[in-house]
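agent: user wants the full assembly modeled, not chains individually. Plan: 1) parse entity lines 2) check alphabet per entity 3) run joint structure prediction 4) return tokens. Steps 1-2 passed, two entities, 916 residues total. Proceeding.
--- entities ---
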Amino acid sequence: MTRRWRAIVLLLALLFPACAVHGLNFRQDKRLTIITPKDRAKVRLPVTIQWTLYDFRITGPDSEDRRDAGYFGVYVDRAPQPPGETQVSLVKDDPPCRRQPSSCETADYLNQANIFAVTTTTFTIDQLPAPPTNAVKRRELHEMTIVFLNGRGERIGESAYRLQFEVDRSGTL
Amino acid sequence: MPPRRKKADETLVEMVVATREELRAEARARLGVTGSDEKPPPLRTVLREHQLSAYPLVALGILAIVDTFQSYAFRVLAPEVSSALGISAGAIAAVISIKSFAEALGPLPVAAMASRKARRALIIIASGIFWSVVAITTGFVTTVAGLAFVLILDGLTTSSVVLHAPVLLDSYAPEGRVRVLSYYVAFAEASSLLAPLLVLVFVSAVGLTWRGVFVALGSISLVGALLAIRLRDPGFGRWDSEQIRDTVREKEAAVDHALEAHALPESDVQLGFFEIIRRLMLIPTIRRLLAVQIAFGFFSIPFDTFLAFFLDERWNLGPAGRALFAAFIALVSVTSLALFGRRGEEMYRKDPGRVITVASWLFVGVFFVILAGAVSPLFVGTVFFFAVANGMLAPLAPSLGIAILSVIPSGMRPHAAAIIGIATAVGGFAGSLLLGGIDAQYGITGTMIALVIPGVVGALILRSAARLVPLDLDRMIDETLEDEEIRQITKTGGTLPMLTCRNINFSYGHVQVLFDVDFTVEEGEMVALLGTNGAGKSTLLKVISGIGLPFAGSVRYKGSEITFLDAERRLRLGITQIPGGRAVFGPMDVVENLRVFGYSFGRDRRGVDEAIERSFAAFPRLAERKDQKASTLSGGEQQMLGLAKALMLQPKLLLIDELSLGLAPVIVGQLLDMVETINHEGTAVVLVEQSVNIALNVARHAYFMEKGQIRFDGPSKSLLARDDLLRAVFLEGAASRTKKRTR
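--- prediction returned ---
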């Protein structure tokens, strides 16, 4: 085998483990539709986000591993966990979690990290950190992502539903 | 000089100059620079006349469109990739940085691959297929490492687009080059129109996810790459260096090509990758336009990002709105380039510098139009002004391209394109950092306004390059003409001097020390190079041995050009220099010094040992002191050790700088005997000396230098009769001796 062929084989050997064929979404999953607010709308806090469902049952955390039933993971201004992982995987490397893993598995800890679990089709954001007063004045854009979780709290597939909204703080102290 | 002889010489010089001017004018015309106001014929006529096909332009244009698909799709779909894979925005930013790094450095290996053989078309086709497969593979990635991997591969493979312009220049006749480059850039701009529209259609109408979009775009890219599969490399310089050579060939009688015999194999004198880069950096136009590219990168690379933020911030445009905006302004660019092609060609025909002047005005104007767009109170105004700015900016790429690529030989164009890419990336990196800081302080509108500064600086530099382009074009023509003339001489069985330096100009920084120096050494000759202190003698030796590179002129060894060849490669060709002032390594002993001299023997340890023995036989004093540190040897012994280098390497041309400096006459006599022996064995010697007596006693041919110019070239005996020249040396020598005594 010549050096060139060896290099090609090595390249493919490195490339293939990083790829997969099964469980990938090539077409958009339209089982969830965010209805309010509109994408990139200007909102005042608290803001309630509402969505509709199709072909997915809300069962809550019932320890079942089904693709069409479970509940929702909601993430504000951060990426969700990779498919198949639980929400705790997002914080497992935080220093307090390394010291005492059980302390991070609470809803309070996850909520502080802008990670939420929801069993209804609405979610209300009460407050978001205001931009520093000395920063350049910009539109305050935030992003929320919703994913499906199965009964065991693991993310189902790659489907993710994103919403951008602008927070209007005019008139607030 | 007798008056009659002088007149005859002057007539001869005038004839040579006139012939050179005539050849140069003809060569310029063959390169499309006719100097006339005549309108260029339509491109279709040019193609028909030269029996050329539009296929290379279309094939490369299609590749220029599809090469950006992966990058564009990733840029706009990064949030979806982040959500789907659960990768943080920080990780996405990190992989994008790695990709940018690969994109910046990728052109270098591409240029290296294309430098020896004309296989650019093969590299272009293979990389086009490869990047398409990579784009498809991106749709199957599941990890951040995989993502980084495909992005790096895309960055590296799409770097082959640096070969597109050089291939186009070699594929089309000079009469249509500006138009061909403009239309090619229009194709590339069309990618900014097509990529957003395709992503919009695939996401909104077809309902694909980011994975589906990558697979779809990759598949389209693959079709595009396969359409280019019939592309063939036109060979280096078919329409320029070969055209220039023809002007000489047609002047000569028909020559039997079988007689062609090069003294040195082509591989021995063909410039390597870094030698080419170094040579390019000595061309004033290239240096100046690289600075412009940095300014251009400073503006253009962060501009896209800041424009997206600006449109988002100021006009609340989401990804779809921004894609449509980008598509619209790209459409204006494409139209502008289509219109510019013919006009640019006209300007280039009249004066290549004119293209650059016009580009510099457009470059300046762009920033004021952007400014108007940034502060416009109406969205329509923003769209209008940004579209106009894009339309004005578009001709900059073909203008810079034709200016840079036309002043360098064809084989070096991939390298030039590579360093342009790097300069743009460097500017982009610096611009991102600086404009990021301005953005944090003054907001996005402030940043858009701040772009005016690098723009105006770049435009001023560009303006200053306009006068350099015709000069460098002529220099390139002269170099090619000279090379062809030499070839013709060798073909007809004519003999050439062993070493010929022509019109050497050299400077240390901004201080020029050699001015149009002509210097010749015949085979086996002993030449004395004399002159006052600071006359440029040692510098000339450096230029010959490769330690210094001239910014103009040529050095030829056995007829082959070696002007920009590395010093160590010249050593292997048989050129050795013994520097002045005890050229030894003081802390090393005698044998170690000799071993260092013999590094060019490589692993041939026996060869080195034999060479050392040869040196010891010639200089028994060195053998006696072989374990002694060189710094503890006497001045004469150190000079012997330096001279032993010549005995070891057995060069064909030996350059000796100031052999007698500070040595007793007896020692000088011994050393000179050795130099004469070396010369009698067939080695040509150039002896740089301040001592006129010493030099003229051993050399029959002498040169005299003063203030960086050759003032005398002829038999040593004739120099002895030139009191006007020698007085300077004697007086200076006497003055320095008086000073020493006073101290």
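agent: reporting back. The mean pLDDT of chain A is 86. Chain A touches chain B at residues 11, 14-15, 17-21, 24-30, 39-40, 78-83, 85, 90, 135-139, 141, 143, 145, 147, 155, 158-160, 162, 164, 166 (CB under 8 Å).
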